[in-house]
Amino acid sequence: MTGWIPGAVQAPPAIRMKFVLMGLFTLVLLAALAQTVDWGELAAAFAGARGFPLFAAFILTLFFPVLNALRWQTVLRAAGLGTSFGRCFQLTMAAWPLGTLTPAKSGEFVKGLAVPNRTLGLGTVLTERVLDILVLGLFGLLAGLWWWHPLAMAGGAFGVLAALGVLLGTPFVLSVLPDIRLRVRLEAFLSVSPMLLSQPRLLLACLLTSGLNWFLSMGQLWYLLAAFGAEMPLGLIVAVLPAAIFVGLLPVTLAGAGTRDAALLVLAGTAAAPAGVLAASVIYTFLGYFLPGFVGLFFLRALTAGRESPEASP
Q1: What percent of the chain has pLDDT over 90?
Q2: Which of 96, 169, 229, 283 is spaced 20 to 30 A from 86 at the CA atom?
């Protein structure tokens, strides 16, 4: 990827082959999941999909890149890297396809290399990711407690503990970590996170933006479940979706497709028709991951073609 990140190179053949294998495994896993539900019910769910909930779910997709760009802009501001919203939006969209294809959305870190200070840029991306996981974990933990859903509580607790572990354990990890590339990211995180934590207003804005983004994502799944005749209470979706998303971060499929769907089927249990849950989950992945990623390709192409300046806007 040249033109907007100095020194960047295209992915080597081994990495491309890994993506191909992940894509094949994703298709195999989705086909296997389809075998676990009644094909007639699955076909009926798609054939009888209701238009308004589908449209509402699509509209919610439009908010996700905006909120992601706003959150990153907030962290950049805390790090002293004042960047326009337009520039943050461009880089967020350009990085979206990379985040969709890479395990645990690690490709999103590339946008941090497009700001003048690469070290702080990487730190801002890691900081927002950690806080985002913390917020999602709190959703799952608290809603899981309310619904007394042990698996949802476990998933939420995992997210909270993982985020707190990074926040509190990074200095120790740095002292024993041999991996130079990971050390650079963690050192960058250590340089940015204290800046954000020392500015309560910006920290609150970042947390609220993440909270709104995830709540709209949960609302999107609620609409999709309604569209495919598998209605679930919104509160239960708030409880189970975080655990499913964390499972989807496993680096075995593209954009968590298949793994997140399987987890959602298990977590939903008997609360909704399995065929409808699977249909809703597949479209949720398309709307929330692949569709923005496809649109992001146009932003990525524009930036790599050198039509945009590689420097951040003032």
Answers
A1: 56
A2: 283
